[in-house]
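Researcher: I need the complex structure. Ligand is fe (iii) ion. Inputs:
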Amino acid sequence: MARITAGLTTSHVPAIGVAIDQGKEQSDYWAPVFAGYEWTKKWIGEERPDVIILVYNDHASAFSLEMIPTFAIGCADQYPIADEGFGPRPVPTVVGHPGLACHLAQSLILDEFDMTVINKMDVDHGLTVPLSLVYGKPAAWPVRVIPLAVNVVQYPPPTGERCYKLGQAIRRAVESYEEDLNVQVWGTGGMSHQLQGPRAGLINQEFDNEFLDNMIDNTAQLRRISHLEYLRESGSEGIELVMWLIMRGAMGENVRELHRFYHVPASNTAVGHLVVEPT
Ligand code: DHB
Ligand code: FE
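Model: Output:
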């Protein structure tokens, strides 16, 4: 049977992708950011997951603002890299796992999560930057990826509670898939950041660190955070953190923290990163 072996969260700041693509990982500014992923790179080399269910948000790259699904799952064979204004990032095409993805779509919809099914989609920095942070610069990604896109771009995004429950449903779905697969769930985005308006540049280290603490053993607290509280405490883009709760829900009740990293700043945001395993 397929099984979820680990979960990972990470910010997906586009400037990190630019730094990697331009070979600036060792610069004074970027070296401390990449240092936080060294442990993870070694770990993933040992874990070798077959599939990552990669929870992220499209930043008006694939969907535009004309159609915005709340929850969408990629069932395609592969996903080209999106052109976000400067040409596509020079990274390999992302290869999907249509078998597990279609099973997830069916299982989640029958479990009353009304997923949008995606059969063709370009993927943007929200998905490719986490892959680059963890896998570096391979000629081909050594893992299949199922994109799971969440609307956190235009109000109203889903609640943290709903995201957590979707994670629980993902766990049920994976565990009912017959093929023997090592599956990880990644939640991306965050941490506190605001890219526009009078509070542009807002970073709230106290909020972020409490969020990281609670990801391990106080999800009840995180699931209660309202949209207004995210906006007030973590800036207008801090709402991306609800995607971390999908990963957390997919781990089951208890997890063990394997790795934790927090750094300020990277571009306009705080970078947060966790690796956990279900216990
Ligand atoms: C930026 C964009 C993002 O999507 C994000 O999650 C963090 C930062 C940015 O433009 O700096
Ligand atoms: Fe983002």
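Model: Summary of the prediction. The radius of gyration is 17 Å.
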